[in-house]
Amino acid sequence: MHNKRSLQPLVLAVASALLSMGAQAQNLAELYDSARAFDAAYQSAKLQYDANLAKGEQARAGILPTAGVSAGASLTGFHNTSPVTDRSFSTQNAALTATQPLYRPANQAAYQQGLRQADLAKAQLDAAEQDLIVRTSQGYFDVLAAQDTLAFVRAQKAAVAEQLASAKRNFEVGTSTITDTREAQARYDLVIAQEISSENDLRVKKLALDTLVGKTGAEPKSLLVPVNLPVVAPQDVNAWVLQSEAVHPSIRQAQSNLEIAKLEVTKAEAGHKPTLDLTGSYNITRNPSGTATSALTFNTNTATIGLSLNVPLFAGFSTQNRIRETLSLSDKASSDLEGARRNVAQSTRTAFFGVVSGQGQVKALEAAELSSQSALDANKLGYQVGVRINIDVLNSQSQLFQTKRDLAQARYNVLLGDLRLRQANGTLSTADLQKVNSLLAK
């Protein structure tokens, strides 16, 4: 009982420190928003998305009309020997030309590819956003786990220090041997080393989180205890795999690449087909000083409209070889799509069973925590009445704090595992992040 009372001031001090720290603490959603605006990898993906959209739109030009204006002026010196004539005249001209493709199958295929490029860019951006959610959550819970480990090590240090003091007192009055004192001293020295390691680990984890979110001294809010961990729903792993088929960014990217490759085949086959364009022009020519044959002012306005037909006959087998190349690349894209589906299915199943296993570990560790606490209480009582030795108490203390640390880590792993499962099947969104955020201290 005395040992329990001695731990109360430490517990109150730790709780007070956490409360004071929580006044400026940030929750997971707040730190994710910061990371979204700061993280270099996500910003790079966002800019690449904008660039891909612009690149896709460029292909539209191939089916739209083109127009241009040209203008010029010249001065001509004219000399004739019979009869002798010396004079000069100027020429001014301006022209408007326009072309509208009527039948260009290669251009139409390129336009369709541009649309698929936009879909591809969106899938790539979605993948980057899901990755950022997981990376931010990982960094967040890494800091919380490191804080818990340090708190448990310090609590264990206080408990071992008290056990060391008790062993010294008992040795002085002759009720225990020097072995008890030395065992307690050895355990105390070991906990000091663990504390130093835990402090450095926390420092490193905080630095990693600060770098990710672009804040100095970010303080994550702690997890509510007891916490209602999310239940995997649906509980059929095949349902998760089936869901990934239509939404997973990797599958969507592979599907877009396949469609783009098929359109590339269409473009190559268009090398054998004719093209037809509608052309038009309007030309104005002025000679205010006359021409070589006349001194009178001369103006000419010319308007033309017509069709331009181009029929390919032979290109040195270039078109045939290009078709063979694109067919092989199309088959490759099809294989890549099947590979993406298999990888997503495997990753989804692995993540699903990881979450289920993690939930089972949490329940087992919760039971182990109660058992370890009961074992510690029994060993302390046995030590006081002389039926247990000091090492029994020390081992029980170590087991209890180890179990507490493992339990805290297991809870974080379940929350991260749930996010990773949704990333694995491609459904992860900020709404899922908000659900985890609701489990944190306010």
Using brief descriptors, characterize the structure shown.
single chain, 442 residues, alpha+beta, Outer membrane efflux proteins (OEP), four-stranded antiparallel sheet, 14% strand, elongated, disordered N terminus
Q: How would you characterize this protein structure?
A:
The protein is of the alpha+beta class. The chain contains ten helices and four strands, in the order αααββααααββααα. Strands 1-2-3-4 form a four-stranded antiparallel beta sheet, with no helix packed on it. A hairpin with a 2-residue loop joins β1 and β2 (84-103).
Strand order of the largest sheet: 1-2-3-4
Determine the structural class based on helices, strands and strand pairing.
Answer: alpha+beta
Question: What's the CATH first level of one domain?
Answer: Mainly Alpha
Question: Rg from C-alpha positions?
Answer: 39 Å
CATH topology name of one domain:
Outer membrane efflux proteins (OEP)
Which sheet architecture does the biggest sheet show? 4 strands, antiparallel
Task: Spell out the CATH superfamily of one domain.
Answer: Outer membrane efflux proteins (OEP)
- The ordered H/E elements are HHHEEHHHHEEHHH
Total count of strands = 4
Percent of sequence in beta strands: 5-15%
Oligomer: single chain
Low-confidence stretches: 1-23
| Helix residue percentage | 55-70%
**N- and C-termini, Cα separation:** 34 Å
CATH architecture of one domain: Up-down Bundle
- Total helical segments: 10
Q: Specify the overall morphology.
A: elongated
Query: Quick check: average pLDDT?
Result: 89
